């Protein structure tokens, strides 16, 4: 199985979707560790229920993004992580982390990239008045919210939508395409004869 490290900042519904897909046999992978950066995040509560170890690395305790990412890399290596999944990770990554796991970091973003990069993507979509919104799973490269797109899904924007209602509709699709993308990565890894 592919050894995953998941990084989350908040609710962790995408963490849950990945854990469930593994439990259901849809992904040949195991979650080695959850890294979270906010003490009040719900993601570690979900991890505990699934028997997954959770490590709090609070960015506020580190003097630069590079020092923070160095600690993240050490932690991921300590848990023998092969692929990193950003499941609602709200910090910008530095080359320290991106180069340590080159082409093995997957991100989920709540827009149809390259539209609406950065924070508040759902709000940006509403403000732009687009009629179709969605989400993107992509490999992480050095620029924020860029890198090869793996899967996208679209949803309609309805006339009375708020950020909350539109985000909820997008998240249904996130929970489908993020596990799907990881399954593809796991299958690709297996076919290269890793023997695991
Ligand atoms: C998801 O909608 C994800 O796309 C978004 O945060 C949410 C986390 O939800 N990520 C970003 O905005 C990254 N810039 P979750 O904690 O319930 O999985």
From TrEMBL:
GO-annotated biological processes: 'de novo' IMP biosynthetic process
Pfam families: Formyl_trans_N
Pathway membership, UniProt: Purine metabolism; IMP biosynthesis via de novo pathway; N(2)-formyl-N(1)-(5-phospho-D-ribosyl)glycinamide from N(1)-(5-phospho-D-ribosyl)glycinamide (10-formyl THF route): step 1/1
Active site residues per record: 109 (proton donor)
GO molecular function: phosphoribosylglycinamide formyltransferase activity
Binding of (6R)-10-formyltetrahydrofolate, residues: 65, 107
Catalytic activity annotation: N(1)-(5-phospho-beta-D-ribosyl)glycinamide + (6R)-10-formyltetrahydrofolate = N(2)-formyl-N(1)-(5-phospho-beta-D-ribosyl)glycinamide + (6S)-5,6,7,8-tetrahydrofolate + H(+)
Biological role stated in the UniProt entry: Catalyzes the transfer of a formyl group from 10-formyltetrahydrofolate to 5-phospho-ribosyl-glycinamide (GAR), producing 5-phospho-ribosyl-N-formylglycinamide (FGAR) and tetrahydrofolate.
NCBIfam families tied to this protein: PurN
Protein name: Phosphoribosylglycinamide formyltransferase
Natural source organism: Amazonocrinis nigriterrae CENA67
């Amino acid at each position: 199985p592919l050894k995953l490290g998941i990084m989350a900042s908040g609710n962790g519904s995408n963490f849950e979707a990945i854990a469930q897909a593994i439990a259901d046999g849809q992904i040949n992978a195991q979650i080695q560790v959850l890294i979270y950066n906010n003490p009040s995040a719900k993601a570690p509560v979900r991890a505990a229920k699934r028997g997954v170890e959770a490590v709090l690395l609070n960015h506020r305790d580190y003097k630069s993004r590079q020092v923070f990412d160095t600690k993240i890399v050490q932690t991921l290596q300590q848990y023998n992580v092969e692929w990193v999944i950003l499941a609602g990770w709200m910090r910008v990554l530095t080359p320290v982390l991106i180069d340590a796991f080159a082409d093995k970091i997957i991100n989920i973003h709540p827009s149809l990239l390259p539209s609406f990069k950065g924070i508040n993507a759902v709000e940006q979509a509403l403000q732009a008045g687009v009629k179709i919104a969605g989400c993107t799973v992509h490999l992480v490269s050095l620029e924020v919210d860029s890198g090869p797109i793996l899967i996208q899904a679209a949803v309609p924007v309805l006339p009375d939508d708020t950020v909350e209602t539109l985000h909820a509709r997008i998240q249904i699709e996130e929970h489908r395409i993020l596990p799907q993308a990881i399954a593809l990565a796991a299958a690709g890894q297996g076919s290269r004869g890793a023997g695991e």
